């Protein structure tokens, strides 16, 4: 140990966990460069990591082909009372789940090293911040946590003798010795994967996966599932949202927090390069926002993370140049393809397709190969500080004041490019009824439409109906200082299956309309589903687009929306009496507006 630990609760937990998981060694992480480099050297030696010749200080990893994304079916919210987890979460009683996991964790680190990873979500000096400690048997997890969080010695110092921390235990769940492993990391089979949350104890136990949100427990497990539970108790919000600062040509700043489901465009919007002249965007976060009412009555947000764990496929200098520059050095890549000259490659990176690659499974690949070279959920891990459009205020302990909420999803049909809510309750209704086609960010079928309220379906640590009520309660607290609420859909398609909207940097055209609505400068058309720009309200300067094409992306089809009402009714039914009356009221009002 390169530092003193005075926190007896932490020492006891580590001691007890070691007695249970029986590692050969315990490594207390200090978060130093030397530690990171030595772990990477060790993993390079074992074959798990491939250093990239073309990118300084960067490494490629390949997971087991069965361990490529979050496993929602194996993610549990374990409250004593099943109803407190609600109908959208998997539930097993805490005693039973712990009994199963006690057995699985027993001796699971034999022959290997147990890493103790102290980390802070949020800057250490922020009133928002929460300290967590993850125990893991994966050096890959240690290196990722070093980038994604503030990790190491400073956190232990801050914790002191009496400080409290949220414990999280993780094992890849295989008795294989890492040094003898195949190039992939080991994992447990699907039925033995458990991403378990005990919200009342603010505790996480994750077994059997080394991938992303299943294993980097500061992210979805602590900062969303456990934090959302705590936030409701304490009167703040933990949301699956990017944070963006937009400055208009007159110099007025707008802070935007936007919730889209996994792999539906948060990272891209967070790093947007506006195509409209004079507009400037700065990134504050791409996945998680913690928000609290400030002394001034406004809603202030911080991003608790320190890095990006972003979707690689589709990222290019044309779509997201800032992300491309973010990963030029000091990055970790997972399940990307490897070029012959030692660089990474993925579908949609642009440029010519190399004649030969090593695919994400470690096999030779040529363009004739029908399989994808990179996994669709291949990801990069990079520090926020590598991002060229990072806001200088990204670490402000007070956060930034949010003016605008945007919800959205991936919908080939029905949902127009942008809709303005009529008022807070209508905006909450929009968030609560958000729907999106499933993506590769979670295992299972891709492209199935599902309701994903507030993009929080996989991340809400308690009954979703109570979460809806919490949104109403926050609105009541914020009153006329509450952010204005919008809904967007970048993903509408024509009948022939083509994107109707150029997306990416051109999404600034939608943001401009939204900002001008706040300033009372732009007009809108009232429709049954909310206020929508008319064709002339959108700035399409510099784009060679027809009137009809813009009309198609803005169209509201009343018949299709009547079907939506029926599907929302069904979706709401599962919450029974726990569904807030204010949401039922909104559904009724929508139906009435559609029928007149
Ligand atoms: P998580 O990290 O899983 O929470 O996802 P995210 O919401 O940050 O998604 P991300 O920005 O990484 O986008 C996922 C995919 O959507 C990428 O392949 C993008 O290229 C694509 N995408 C993002 N924005 C747009 C857009 O405006 N239009 C289109 N057509 N695709 C987009
Ligand atoms: C998501 O799926 O929303 C992600 C990636 O941001 S993971 O961290 O794997 O959950
Ligand atoms: Mn996410």
Give me the CATH architecture of the largest domain, please.
Alpha-Beta Complex
Helix fraction, binned, reads 25-40%
The first-to-last residue Cα distance is 71 Å
> What's the gyration radius in Å?
24 Å
CATH domain fold name of the largest domain: Phosphoenolpyruvate Carboxykinase, domain 3
Count of the domains? 3
Quantity of strands, as a count: 31
Name the quaternary structure.
Answer: single chain
The percentage of residues in β strands lies in: 15-25%
Give the overall silhouette: globular
Spans of 5+ residues with little confidence (pLDDT < 50)? 178-182
Largest sheet: 8 strands, mixed
Number of helices in the DSSP assignment: 16
How would you classify the helix and strand content by structural class? alpha+beta
Bound molecules: guanosine-5'-triphosphate, sulfopyruvate, manganese (II) ion
Average pLDDT score: 96
Task: Please write the CATH class name of the largest domain.
Answer: Alpha Beta
What is this entry, summarized?
The chain has 596 residues and is of the alpha+beta class. The chain has 16 helices and 31 strands.
Q: In words, what does this structure look like?
A:
The chain folds into 3 domains: 8-30 and 68-234, Phosphoenolpyruvate Carboxykinase, domain 1, CATH 3.40.449; 238-303 and 394-594, Alpha-Beta Complex (Phosphoenolpyruvate Carboxykinase, domain 3), CATH 3.90.228; 309-384, Phosphoenolpyruvate Carboxykinase, domain 2, CATH 2.170.8.10. The protein has 596 residues and is of the alpha+beta class. 28% of the residues lie in helices and 21% in strands. The protein is globular and about 70 Å long. The chain is built from 16 helices and 31 strands. The longest helix is centred in the middle third of the chain and has 17 residues, at 218-234. The strands form 7 sheets. Strands 1, 4, 5, 6, 7, 8, 9 and 10 form an 8-stranded mixed sheet that branches. A 6-stranded mixed sheet has the order 14-12-13-25-29-26, sandwiched between helices. A 5-stranded mixed sheet has the order 2-3-18-23-17. Bound molecules: guanosine-5'-triphosphate, sulfopyruvate and manganese (II) ion. The site of manganese (II) ion (MN) has 3 residues, from loops.
């Amino acid at each position: 140990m390169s530092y003193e630990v005075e926190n007896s609760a932490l020492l006891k937990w580590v001691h007890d966990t070691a007695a249970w998981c029986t590692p050969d060694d315990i490594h207390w992480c200090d978060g130093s460069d030397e530690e990171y480099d030595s772990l990477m050297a060790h993993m390079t030696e074992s074959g798990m990591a491939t250093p990239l010749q073309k990118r300084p200080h960067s490494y490629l990893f390949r997971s087991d082909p069965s361990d490529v994304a979050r496993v929602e079916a194996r993610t549990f919210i374990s409250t004593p009372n099943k109803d407190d987890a609600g109908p959208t979460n998997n539930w097993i009683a805490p005693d039973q789940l712990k009994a199963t996991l006690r057995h699985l964790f027993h001796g699971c680190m034999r022959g290997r090293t147990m890493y103790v990873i102290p980390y802070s979500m949020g800057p250490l000096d922020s009133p928002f911040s929460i300290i967590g400690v993850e125990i893991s048997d994966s050096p890959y997890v240690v290196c990722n946590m070093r980038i994604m969080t503030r990790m190491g010695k400073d956190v232990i110092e801050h914790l002191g003798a009496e400080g409290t921390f949220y414990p999280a235990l993780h094992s890849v769940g295989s008795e294989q010795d890492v040094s003898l492993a195949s190039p992939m990391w080991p994992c447990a089979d699907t039925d033995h994967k458990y991403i378990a949350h005990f919200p009342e104890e603010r505790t996480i136990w994750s077994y059997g996966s080394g991938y992303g949100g299943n294993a980097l427990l500061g992210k979805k497990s602590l900062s969303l599932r456990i934090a959302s539970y705590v936030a409701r108790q304490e009167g703040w919000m933990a949301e699956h949202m990017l944070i963006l600062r937009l400055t208009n040509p007159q110099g007025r700043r707008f802070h935007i927090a936007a919730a889209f489901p996994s792999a539906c465009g948060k990272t891209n919007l967070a790093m947007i390069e506006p195509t409209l002249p004079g507009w400037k965007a700065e990134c504050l976060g791409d996945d998680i926002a913690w928000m609290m009412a400030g002394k001034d009555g406004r809603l202030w947000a911080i991003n608790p993370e320190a890095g990006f764990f972003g979707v690689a496929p589709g990222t290019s200098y044309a779509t997201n140049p800032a992300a491309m520059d973010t990963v030029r050095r000091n990055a970790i890549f997972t399940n990307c393809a490897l070029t012959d000259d030692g660089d990474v490659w993925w579908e949609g990176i642009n440029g010519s397709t190399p004649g030969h690659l090593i695919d994400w499974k470690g096999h030779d690949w040529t363009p004739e190969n029908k399989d994808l070279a990179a996994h669709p959920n291949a990801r990069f891990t990079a520090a926020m500080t590598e991002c060229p459009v990072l806001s200088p205020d990204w670490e402000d302990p007070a956060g930034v004041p949010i003016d605008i909420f945007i919800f959205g999803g991936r919908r080939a049909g029905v949902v127009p490019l942008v809709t303005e809510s009529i008022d807070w309750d209508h905006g909450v209704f929009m968030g609560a009824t958000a729907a999106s086609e499933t993506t590769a960010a979670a295992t299972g079928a891709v492209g199935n439409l599902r309701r994903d309220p507030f993009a929080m379906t996989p991340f809400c640590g308690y009954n979703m109906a109570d979460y809806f009520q919490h949104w109403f309660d926050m609105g009541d607290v914020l009153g006329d200082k509450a952010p204005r609420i919008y809904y967007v859909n970048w993903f509408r398609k024509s009948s022939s299956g083509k994107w109707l909207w150029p997306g990416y940097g051109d999404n600034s055209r939608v943001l401009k309309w939204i900002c001008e609505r706040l300033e009372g400068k732009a007009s809108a058309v009232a429709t049954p589903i909310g206020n929508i720009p008319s064709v002339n309200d959108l700035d399409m300067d510099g784009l060679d687009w027809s009137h009809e094409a813009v009309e198609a992306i803005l169209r509201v089809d009343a018949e299709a929306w009547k079907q939506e009402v029926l599907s929302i009714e069904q979706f709401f039914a599962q919450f029974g009496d726990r569904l807030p009356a204010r949401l039922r009221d909104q559904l009724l009002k929508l139906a009435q507006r559609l029928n007149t």
